[in-house]
Amino acid sequence: MEKRKFLLWKDVNISGGLLGEKQRVNEKVTIPYLFQSYEETGRFDFLKNGWNIHKKYEPHHFWDSDIAKLIEAAAYTLITNPSKETEERLDNLIEAFEKKQQSDGYLNTYFSNFCIEYRFTDLMMMHELYCAGHLIEAAVAYYEASGKRTLLNIICRYLECINTHIGKENGKIHGYDGHPEIELALMRLYHVTSEKKYYQMASYYIEERGTKPYFFEEEAYAEKIDITKPHREIYDIGSFYVQNKKNTDNINPMMIPKARQERVYKWYLPSKGAFAQFSANAPVRELKEPAGHAVRAMYLYCAMADLAEYDETLLETCRRLWRELVDKQMYITGGIGQSQECERFSYAYDLPNEGNYCETCASIGLFMWAKRMLCLELKSEYADVMERALYNGIMSGCSSDGKAFFYANHMAMYPKQYTEGSYVIQSEDRISPIRRKTFSISCCPANYARLIASIGGYFYSVDDDNLYIHLYNESSIEYCFSGIKTKIEQITDYPREETITILINPEETVKFGIYLRIPGWCRQWSCLVNNEKQKLKSKNGYICIQREWKQGDKILLITRMEPVLYVANPKVRQNSGKIAVMRGPIVYCMEEADNFTELSDFVIRSSEKIMVESTKTFEGFPVLCMKGRKTDISEWGNKLYQDIHEKKQIDVIGTAIPYYMWANRGLGEMLVWINAE
């Protein structure tokens, strides 16, 4: 298996460009805003002081994970913007976690505050190991950024406790978490500490998952829960509080576990099997396709890819799941997880536009998995998916000002469904026609913040003799090849512009290879070295320039960027007769603010050239103008139906902007897939 390693986020300087701009907004606005939001919603108070029943906030059993992701995000900023204030803020939170830790190492504020005797009794739904996983990732990030080991030591004690209770040995719980996360976190900890026990724990959770008898059934039987009863929603302290808010003085938090036992455990998805919602319907090597909760699946696949570096038998499974996902269930934006119901995948080629889910966290999980696959084998399609998800399905999750967020990322928006519709599910804050300041379940904002803060760690990988450049943005690194310190700089405004300049400055002449990804969307490209055109062929989507490099050497890569019309596989019934528009890796959409109402009536003349209006831009991206037609509605009056021969059309120009920027100008219609002649 190929052996390459990605350079750490702290070794890559994102000096400008689109991602540099996003990092600055993230650092100066989004992360401070999340600290404020977590303070106002009681997350920090719950960690430090427990729960006061008269407070207005509603604690959740996964709040530890929210705080952990925020610690992780803030830790990444300490390299680009060292701040004693940020360090002190993080140290105070870490101190609170240390005080909350039980004498045997156990650490979960929800159980510690309410029902410690019920710990490890409901691994399927109560997110204990999921929260532990995010604390591990926070500990690793803060250690790498600051050198401080306090949180790392805390989490290592917690892992000793977990390992005492859960594992393959007799007398232990032979189980795993309902929401994968600890597995990939343990692998990350293993890479930092080289402690083999963390690798072994991650391997156990993955190998045990989905084996029979099903652990989640046995867990239910142990708690005397009748799994044959109809489905009942989970009762956490928040929902219990809401249901009893008229009698808050009489709430006893110890009642919660008893109420919790009323729901059914046996999640069954048609054709997928029992517990497919948790990717636990079969041993991992037997999984045939992505199923169930999209984020759970992505985090599991990340861990499987991590383990595949040491156990190649997992690689074929990862490849199979990858093909089934990107070929049959991935949106053109890199969004995944079509169904609002249980935040899950539906089935192959089912890609609805209105009412789709595409959780921001799911695209982030796909991005993380793609990087791990790229570690295993050098194929540009993995980096292509990273790029597609990043610039479309992930960046759409945060507003331009950095203070509002999408949980679900819709592919089409007709606001009346939300303002005048009758669907109860659309009243949920996660399924919103506009970005929201906060959510009752708030995983996405901090997940977005930690990814953008650490984005440099996804750009470059190296082996003994080569540098691999996977993503393009203004950035720089320093690395030693054959013992010679070499500075590499990208000078580019990609993906807004098509030209990428790479400067190579070794301290003395040195030979190594530079691999450049040719994006999958790119139909025409050229490469020059020191102004001499190169005759190169790409292999697996990369070109390789192998030579002796000296100070002042320069590579110029030009990726021709023209608007391109895409069609979907005919099996995607929702997009039959429709096209989507991309320029480079950027998916465009039509938005009411630039056009007219009833966007679904617009028909593009696909034979006409799309005009690039560079004088009008959105965050530096040009607006695209498309010739088309729409119905002359003035002729209809109050008729509901009309003879087709009476229908009159008028010529119009449709305007499209980058999809990730929609909904920054208020409520309105939007669509990605446009009717075509």
- Main sheet? 7 strands, antiparallel
Strand content: 15-25%
The backbone outline, from C-alpha atoms, is globular
How are the strands ordered across the major sheet? 2-8-9-10-15-12-13
Structural domains: how many: 3
Query: Any guess at the CATH architecture of the largest domain?
Result: Alpha/alpha barrel
Number of helices: 18
Q: Which fold name is given in CATH as the topology of the largest domain?
A: Glycosyltransferase
Radius of gyration (Å): 26 Å
Mean pLDDT metric: 91
Q: What's the number of extended β-strand segments?
A: 24
Low-confidence segments: 230-265
Roughly how many Å apart are the termini?
48 Å
What is this entry, summarized?
By secondary structure, this protein is an alpha+beta fold. It contains 18 helices and 24 strands.
How would you sum up this structure, described in words?
InterPro entries: 6-hairpin_glycosidase_sf, Beta-AFase-like, Beta-AFase-like_GH127_C, Beta-AFase-like_GH127_cat, Beta-AFase-like_GH127_middle. This is Glycoside hydrolase family 127 protein. Residues 566-675 form the Non-reducing end beta-L-arabinofuranosidase-like GH127 C-terminal domain. By secondary structure, this protein is of the alpha+beta class. The chain has 3 domains: 14-225 and 272-456, Glycosyltransferase, CATH 1.50.10; 465-559, Immunoglobulin-like (Sandwich), CATH 2.60.40.1180; 563-676, no CATH class. The chain contains 18 helices and 24 strands. It is globular, with a radius of gyration of 26 Å.
